[in-house]
Amino acid sequence: MRATLPLLENTDFPAIRRRPLQTLQVNLGYRCNQQCLHCHVDAGPNRKEEMSLATVAQVLALLRSRRAMRLDVTGGAPELNPHFRHLVGQAHALGVAVTDRCNLTILEEPGQEDLAAFLASHQVGVVASLPCYLEENVDRQRGRGVFEKSIRALRRLNALGYGSAGSGLELALVYNPQGPTLPPPQCGLEADYRAQLHDRYGIRFDRLLTLANMPIRRFGSTLLSKGQFADYMALLRGAHQDANLDHVMCRDLVSVDWQGYLYDCDFNQMLDIPVRQPGGRRMHLTDLLTEDLDGRVIAVADHCYGCTAGQGSSCGGALSR
């Protein structure tokens, strides 16, 4: 795999600083039951990195000390970590709002037959990857049969109340482009998703999030191999909007890797650009028990233009409407 960091480090991206921390985004490991072309984590079935129970305990200790924080759980497929349910169950007991970034097909993996019911019983919000409402497009990007499995999983979640008004069980879907283009306007695409999925399959969901593909890891390597990297970066830089800078996720979110080290975002985690102390030491989540990140300078590189291009892109979808 061809690394893109050397092409991203020299940047003129605007300097930005952190605000008070609101969301702890925890990556439980890079193992996944899928291996998608666009994956910025380079996740797959053969990855071995996995958060230990001891580090999960440190996550819970931090959540106890900062009850106002939200917990955003990601991977790989975070549900494959053997401590996933312990973390979610304990966080729920603390009254912490939990989000699971789910690839949907994990609900059909052996041993995960009761996963959907577990998520519902702990009021976990589900952010589910579904890069298109057309079967051929999803299977081209994520593998043969993935769309059909995803529809079955969505129906299972709907049957438990996800996507129904007043249920308290939020179901968001995630779209990302098939190639080196910007996502279309989120509002209009959401209307298309809603009509197509309801009319064809009876699927309900609460909202659609549109995410730009990041020029890093597997997607970045693919761009390089096809000679498209420079053009894609020119697209991102040319579409930059200063107005999006105030809303980027790194302002009030911190990303935690499987070993407990801190990053300004999940993308910086994949590029190994950690949050550091003034002396250069990598910060660990245990540091947050006694220190704050508010006001610190955020580490940026050229990939950050992927978050500010056009309507903007973040873990919460478009930044502007």
Low-pLDDT residue intervals, each spanning 5 or more residues = none
**End-to-end separation:** 36 Å
Task: Give helix and strand order, one letter per element, not per position.
Answer: HEHEHEHEHHEHEHHEEHH
The CATH class: Alpha Beta
What is the spatial order of strands in the main beta sheet? 6-5-4-3-2-1-7-8
Structure commentary:
The chain is of the alpha/beta class and 321 residues long. It has a single domain (5-308), classed as TIM Barrel. The chain contains eleven helices and eight strands. The protein has helices at 5-8, 53-65, 84-93, 115-121, 135-142, 146-159, 186-201, 217-225, 229-238, 266-271, 305-308; strands spanning 23-27, 70-74, 98-102, 125-129, 171-175, 207-210, 253-256, 262-263. The chain has an eight-stranded mixed beta sheet with strand order 6-5-4-3-2-1-7-8. Strand 3, helix 4 and strand 4 form a beta-alpha-beta unit. It starts with a helix and ends in a 13-residue tail after the last helix.
List its traits:
31% helix; 8 strands; 321 residues; TIM Barrel; globular
How do you describe this structure in short?
With 321 residues, this protein is of the alpha/beta class.
Topology:
Layout: H1 5-8, E1 23-27, H2 53-65, E2 70-74, H3 84-93, E3 98-102, H4 115-121, E4 125-129, H5 135-142, H6 146-159, E5 171-175, H7 186-201, E6 207-210, H8 217-225, H9 229-238, E7 253-256, E8 262-263, H10 266-271, H11 305-308
Parallel strand pairs: 1-2, 1-7, 2-3, 3-4, 4-5, 5-6
Antiparallel strand pairs: 7-8
